[in-house]
Amino acid sequence: MTTQTSSMPIPGHIDPVPVPRPITEREDGRIDILGLPKKQIASLFEDAGLDKKQAKLRAKQVYHWIYHRGVSDFEAMTDIAKTMRPWLAERFVIARPEIVEAQHSSDGTRKWLLRTADKHDYEMVFIPDADRGTLCVSSQVGCTLNCRFCHTGTMRLVRNLTPGEIVGQVMLARDALGEWPKGRMDELGDESESDYTADGRLLTNIVMMGMGEPLYNFDNVRDALGIVMDGDGLALSKRRITLSTSGVVPMMERCGQEIGVNLAVSLHAVSKEVRDEIVPINRKYGLEELLQACADYPGASNARRITFEYVMLREKNDSDEDAHELVRLLKKYKLPAKVNLIPFNPWPGAAYECSTPERIRAFSDIVFEGGISAPVRTPRGRDIDAACGQLKTAAEKKSRAELDRIAAEKQAQLEAE
Ligand code: SAH
Ligand code: SF4
Q1: Measuring from each residue's beta carbon to the nearest atom of ligand 1, which residues come in under 6 Å?
Q2: Ligand 2 centroid from CA 59, angstroms
Q3: How far apart are alpha carbons 321 and 270 in whole angstroms?
Q4: Residue of 392, 393, 389, 395 lying closest to 377 (CA atoms)
Q5: Residue 131, Cβ neighbours under 10 Å: how many?
Q6: To test the ligand 1 pocket, which listed residue (143, 244, 310, 390) has its Cβ within 8 A of the most ligand atoms?
Q7: CA–CA dist 125, 135 (Å, integer)
Q8: What span, in angstroms and rounded, lies between the C-alpha atoms of 146 and 144?
Q9: Which among 43, 70, 166, 269 would be 20 to 30 A from 6, CA to CA?
């Protein structure tokens, strides 16, 4: 298992990653408008035969129904003329990702196995807490990277998710949690502000921490989060959204400028030797380069700190010296930082073990004494394989022969470099 994950080539931001057309073609010929910006919906309506003014007005109405009401059936859009509704339904569709399986953990965590229209599986996870509810969203089916402690990293990258498939996860979660405003469905503009604030809602936060490396699918993640943050869209504040990267340095500045959400960085090690081994993208973008990019991250401040994720691996990265070095590095770059210590979540065939609770406590204390907050994250949803790094679709899990073939391919590619 370990050899197969250590041999994958490390792509840079310009390396090819399969990018589907933003609009996935459907067998029935209709166009799925979920995840498209309002302007693009208007131009599709125009292409279908509406005049410019009509197209713009209808796009505005439809967009409102989709994102403020959660409606996916044109027939329910009561402010659109009765004759217009079947006309729209013949040509367009507001789809949701297909749910293959929904699981519920004993701690309240929920995991959904989803399927794209072209039959690729991916996962999303909802983690309820006393004061918030966090949806963990995937950006890719699989991952090109192969961090050695991560189960998703043992999958081949199948493809990037489209904006519709990314926004679709949030829509599905709201459907499942029953969080669309109810009543008075026949008028626009009748809702009060409080319908759209986070107060009283279960789903309050989004983390791009599911399957995949979001900065290797930059455009689609940006466009999807654009709709999530749009006041006419899902209207979630950028302060409630966090994007986690393994360290795709050349895309970090654009992430701050064009997306503007909170940043989390999968640091996991403080020396070149160890980080090269466990987060192999480090061989391409090294530690110092990564920390400099964090120092330059637009919008980071003491009020909006960068989260450094650190998975606790027994006798690999968990010594007192590692903790002191972590403090030294974060201070050297004057980073407004908080550290999130993640106990390693095991999966079948993993080459590592979790640090002992005493070791994790000692590590956390040293970082705290260095003046940096370092809480230990409680693992959630372990019983349904929903915890950090456990995501991997069932289809992939079954196919041992296929995995061996991928491992051989990756090895050959590495040797050819
Ligand atoms: N690809 C992005 C987003 C994934 S976020 C990234 O790597 O940042 C999920 C977080 O969980 C990352 O910090 C990841 O490194 C961490 N993780 C992966 N596998 C894990 C495991 N088995 N146990 C604990 N954390 C893990
Ligand atoms: Fe990919 Fe993130 Fe897993 Fe690394 S930790 S393999 S970047 S999903």
Answers
A1: 147, 149-150, 209, 213, 244-246, 266, 309, 311, 342, 344-345, 388-389
A2: 37
A3: 10
A4: 389
A5: 5
A6: 244
A7: 6
A8: 7
A9: 166
Atom 4, ligand 2: residue with shortest CA distance: 147
Residue nearest to atom 6 of ligand 2 (CA): 153
Res 415: pLDDT: 42
pLDDT in tens, 361-394: 999 999 999 999 999 998 899 888 888 877 776 5
Q: What mean pLDDT is predicted for residues 291-316?
A: 96
Q: Ligand 2: which of 138, 213, 281, 283 to mutate, most ligand atoms within 8 Å of CB?
A: 213
Tell me, yes or no, if 136 is annotated catalytic: no
Q: Can you state the angle between helices 38-47 and 52-69, rounded to 10 degrees?
A: 130
Separation of alpha carbons 218 and 39, rounded Å: 20
Lowest mean pLDDT among 20-24, 127-131, 193-197, 322-326: 193-197
Is 123 catalytic? The answer is yes
- 229 touches 237 (CB < 8 A): yes
Residues near ligand 2 (Cβ within 6 A): 143, 145-147, 150, 152-153, 212-213, 246, 266
Q: Report which of 190, 105, 130 is spatially closest to residue 383, judged by C-alpha positions.
A: 105
Helix (H, G, I), strand (E, B) or coil at 86: helix
Here the tokens at position 372 are 């940096």
Report the b/e string of 62-71 with b at 16+ CB within 10 A: bbbbbbbbbb
- For residue 189, the model assigns a pLDDT of 45
The predicted pLDDT at position 191 comes to 44
What's residue 212's pLDDT?
94
What are the pLDDT digits (tens) for 390-415? 777 655 554 556 655 654 554 444 34
- Both tokens of 61, joined, read 């109405």
